């Protein structure tokens, strides 16, 4: 028999037992659906992460209390990290003098909740102390007015630069915020600049910020202590000079801070140097582990589905023993019988795989619509879904197919 005849015969056998075939393929459907949905969501997450980091600025170095990494050296527990010496404005000034550095900007923030102006209000706002050059290191674009200047910082001017969310919600579309007054926790600041919309970054809004000079901020607010100092303490954003590799600038900043802090050669850093590349590597490690765990769980479902296929194919061989004997008696070769039953197994598993691929993308799209997670369809996930299902069909169908092909035709015809 030719290939087309065997294929048609295989699908005919599956159509003859529709309910059994559907239930048998259910394990494959669930497994492939899970794999495809997870891969689509993880691919969407990876693309979102890349976009988020692009918005932050690819060259900025963040000098903080803790290094954010997975694997390698661990900086210690939070209690030990919180006891580290705080970064200072003098550290930022010293870093700014390095020949490989274009700007070194001290930054500190605090939550100020809801801001109001007349009948208008803006929720979940943040007050940020920064300095000249903060628009460069933070990848901010001023749409109107200007950013914080050296004169603002040295004179502790009561001025501010606001995000687009605050401008739109407190001043309205027709009211120009420039040179107007904004009250934050009882203190009045003159608006000197408005920033372009930046959107959210890793689920946190970016346009709800009020930037004021760092010296003005430290006049009214203290640097947090304890664990709060790890995530809301003073940090320094460093931008390398044009043409200077980030790694070179990181090395120079590290050597300078080690000298300033009096660290010996055998002592670990008591500060963190975080770059976009290092943080992206950390997040990629997390997504890779998540990918392995979820695909491993989905693979178990595929194995269970494969066992179900093998079980049903063995039942089918037992039910059709007489048929096999007659076919072999009239000239069917062992290879013909082997291929027929193997194709039935593969047809059963790939049918489930096809349904699983469609359902997987539907599930990913539904999760994406109901949450902030994105989903991305890539061509290789479709090939992977078919590959998984076909492989399961071959691996778990080969034994029943071999058993059918080795039946003795005389004994098979006499089988009751």
Largest sheet: 10 strands, mixed
Tell me the number of strands: 12
The pLDDT mean sits at 82
Question: How many H/I helices?
Answer: 15
Whole-number total of structural domains: 2
Rounded to an integer, what's the Rg over CA atoms? Answer: 32 Å
Taking the alpha carbons of the first and last residues, their distance comes to 27 Å
Shape field: elongated
Structural class: alpha+beta
Helicity level: 55-70%
Descriptive notes:
It is a single chain. The chain is of the alpha+beta class and 416 residues long. Helices cover 56% and strands 17% of the residues. It contains 15 helices and twelve strands. The strands form two sheets. Strands 1, 2, 3, 4, 5, 6, 7, 10, 11 and 12 form a ten-stranded mixed sheet that branches. A two-stranded antiparallel ribbon has the order 8-9. α2 (18-56) packs antiparallel against α11, α2 (18-56) packs across α13 (334-370) and α13 (334-370) packs antiparallel against α14. Mean pLDDT is 82; it is low at 70-75.
């Amino acid at each position: 028999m030719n290939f087309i005849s065997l294929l048609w015969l295989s699908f005919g056998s599956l159509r003859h037992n529709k309910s059994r075939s559907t239930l048998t393929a259910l394990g494959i459907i669930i497994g492939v659906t899970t794999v495809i949905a997870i891969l689509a969501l993880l691919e969407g997450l990876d693309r979102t992460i890349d976009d988020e980091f692009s918005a932050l600025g690819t060259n900025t170095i963040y000098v903080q209390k803790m290094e954010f990494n997975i694997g390698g050296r661990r900086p210690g527990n939070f209690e030990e990290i919180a006891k580290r010496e705080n970064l200072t404005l003098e550290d930022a000034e010293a870093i700014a003098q390095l020949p490989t550095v274009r700007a070194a900007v001290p930054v500190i923030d605090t939550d100020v909740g809801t801001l109001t102006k007349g009948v208008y209000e803006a929720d979940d706002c943040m007050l940020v102390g920064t300095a000249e050059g903060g628009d460069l290191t933070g990848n901010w674009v001023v749409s109107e007015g200007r950013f914080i200047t050296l004169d603002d910082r040295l004179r502790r001017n009561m001025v501010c630069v606001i995000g687009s969310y605050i401008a739109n919600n407190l001043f309205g579309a027709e009211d120009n915020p420039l040179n107007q007054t904004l009250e934050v926790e009882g203190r009045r600041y003159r608006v000197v600049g408005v920033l372009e919309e930046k959107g959210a970054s890793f689920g946190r809004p970016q346009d709800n910020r009020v930037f004021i000079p760092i010296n003005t901020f430290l006049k009214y607010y203290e640097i947090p202590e304890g664990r709060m100092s790890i995530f809301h303490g003073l940090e320094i954003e460093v931008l390398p000079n044009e043409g200077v590799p980030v790694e070179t600038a990181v090395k120079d900043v590290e050597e300078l801070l080690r000298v300033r802090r009096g660290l010996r050669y055998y002592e670990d850093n008591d500060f963190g140097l975080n770059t976009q590349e290092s943080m992206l590597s950390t997040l990629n490690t997390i997504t890779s582990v998540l990918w392995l765990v979820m695909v491993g769980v989905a693979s178990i479902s595929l194995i269970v589905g494969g066992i179900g296929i093998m079980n049903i194919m063995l039942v089918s061989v037992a039910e059709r023993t007489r048929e096999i004997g007659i076919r072999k008696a009239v000239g069917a070769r062992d290879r013909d019988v082997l291929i027929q039953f193997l194709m039935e197994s593969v047809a059963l598993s790939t049918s489930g795989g096809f349904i699983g691929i469609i359902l997987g993308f539907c599930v990913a799209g539904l999760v994406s619509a109901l949450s902030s997670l994105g989903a991305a369809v890539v061509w290789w996930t479709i090939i992977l879904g078919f590959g998984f299902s076909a492989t399961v069909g071959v691996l778990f169908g080969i034994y029943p197919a071999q058993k059918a092909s080795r039946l003795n035709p005389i004994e098979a015809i006499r089988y009751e």
